[in-house]
């Protein structure tokens, strides 16, 4: 087991000890990193004992730094059913309420917990760390994996798995990063056991793809998206976008419009557009003028810079890759968007060999 997983297991044991101290309920690890269906790998299989009954759980160990990750975990691990248990260094009182709203069971290293089952109901919240307490292990993962550069390369590899064994210049072009950084990203993935194989041998394979998808979706809204020059506009008519060929402007639909076109399920209320850099300013001017858009910080139209360039997608598709549409929908925490996100995940992202 690599050092990062050792830290996860340390957090897990601290959380089980804190649960016992706060509630008297005991828990133990039955199996580390059990393999699940469709290539999923839970962090641990647990057993909790309360009132003479035993309750099985599948643990996902995560740092919770925003509400969006809670809905993400709930959906990514839907196949765990009632056995899903979030284990975190700390769950704030506000996050605990959101977990209860989502029916997402959890424990943390401070003794906060939400557990429910036949004959079992536990809710502890508001427990705070003492001065100087170190919750650093979970933060280490976010710093290591969540840089904007890493996220760009992860996105390219997840959408285009053939890039795993492509020349670095192809990856750097697809991800929009400096050529010299690609090797460092591969070293990070290799060090965290996400890939196997070697450069130049043609035998690189992406392992635990679904876990990397989950990591990307969690980090994208806070680490990469804010760097994409977001601009907001408003249109005279709410349905102005219907029938528009957005690719004429070197752009693609994201989020709600992409979901409507990918699933025929969602009626868009907010519009997200990703504008590619080639003639980007000229195309933005054409788009704004042609459809009488006006700048509005509170507008329901958001335009961001595209951060990828997939040369094999000619002509340009009208929708962003499903992974990006899924991430943007999850980040909204809007219930109707979360339902559409689930459909996108099931249709386009759930299988290990899916390509965008």
Shape descriptor: globular
What is the CATH level 1 assignment of the largest domain? Alpha Beta
SS summary, helix count: 12
Biggest β-sheet description? 7 strands, mixed
Q: Would you report the number of β strands?
A: 14
Q: Order the strands across the largest sheet as they lie in space.
A: 1-2-3-4-5-6-7
What string, H for helix and E for strand, traces the elements in order?
HEEEHEHEEEHHHHEEHEEHEHEEHH
Please, how many domains?
Answer: 3
Helix content: 40-55%
Characterization of the model:
The strands form three sheets. The chain has a seven-stranded mixed β-sheet, sandwiched between helices. Strands 11-12-14-10-13 form a five-stranded mixed β-sheet. Strands 8-9 form a two-stranded antiparallel ribbon. The chain is built from twelve helices and 14 strands. A hairpin with a 4-residue loop joins strand 5 and strand 6. It has three domains: 3-138, 3-Layer(aba) Sandwich (Trna Endonuclease, Chain: A, domain 1), CATH 3.40.1350; 146-225, Arc Repressor Mutant, subunit A, CATH 1.10.10; 228-349, no CATH class. With 356 residues, the chain is α+β, with helices and mostly antiparallel strands. Helix 6 packs across helix 7 (179-191), helix 8 (209-224) crosses helix 11 and helix 9 (255-263) crosses helix 12 (335-349). It has helices at residues 3-23, 68-76, 93-102, 136-145, 148-159, 168-175, 179-191, 209-224, 255-263, 280-290, 322-332, 335-349, and strands at 26-32, 44-50, 53-61, 84-88, 106-108, 113-117, 120-124, 195-196, 205-206, 231-234, 251-254, 271-275, 294-295, 301-305. Helices cover 41% and strands 18% of the residues. The two termini are 31 Å apart. The model is unreliable at 136-144 and 352-356 (pLDDT under 50).
């Amino acid at each position: 087991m690599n050092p990062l997983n050792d830290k996860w297991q340390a957090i897990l044991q601290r959380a089980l000890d804190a649960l016992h101290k706060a509630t008297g309920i005991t828990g133990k690890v039955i199996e580390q990193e059990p393999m699940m269906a469709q290539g999923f790998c839970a962090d641990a299989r647990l057993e909790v004992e309360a009132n003479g009954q035993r309750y099985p759980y599948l643990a996902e160990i995560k740092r919770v730094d925003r509400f969006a990750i809670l809905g993400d975990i709930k959906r990514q691990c839907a196949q765990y059913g009632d056995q899903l248990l979030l284990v975190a260094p700390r769950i704030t009182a506000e996050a605990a309420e959101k977990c209860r709203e989502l029916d997402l069971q959890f424990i943390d290293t401070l003794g906060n917990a939400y557990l429910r089952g036949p004959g079992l109901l536990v809710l502890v919240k508001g427990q705070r760390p003492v001065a100087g307490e170190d919750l650093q292990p979970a933060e280490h993962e976010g710093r290591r994996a969540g840089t904007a550069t890493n996220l760009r390369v992860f996105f390219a590899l997840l959408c285009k798995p053939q890039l795993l064994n492509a020349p670095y210049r192809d990856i750097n072009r697809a991800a929009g990063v400096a050529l010299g950084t690609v090797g460092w990203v591969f070293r990070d993935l290799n060090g965290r056991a996400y890939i196997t194989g070697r450069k130049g041998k043609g035998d690189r394979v992406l392992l635990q793809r679904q876990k990397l998808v989950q990591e990307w979706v969690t980090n994208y809204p806070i680490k990469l998206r804010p760097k994409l020059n977001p601009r907001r506009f408003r249109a005279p008519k709410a349905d102005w976008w219907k029938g528009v060929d957005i690719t004429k402007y070197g752009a693609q639909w994201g989020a709600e419009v992409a979901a409507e076109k990918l699933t025929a399920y969602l009626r868009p209320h907010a519009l997200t557009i990703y504008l590619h850099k080639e003639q980007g300013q000229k195309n933005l001017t054409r788009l704004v003028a042609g459809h009488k858009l006006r700048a509005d910080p509170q507008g329901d139209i958001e335009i961001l810079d595209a951060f990828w360039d997939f040369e094999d997608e000619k002509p340009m598709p009208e929708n962003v890759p499903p992974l990006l549409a899924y991430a943007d929908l999850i980040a909204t925490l809007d219930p109707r968007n979360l339902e559409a996100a689930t459909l996108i995940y099931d249709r386009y992202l759930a299988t290990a060999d899916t390509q965008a």
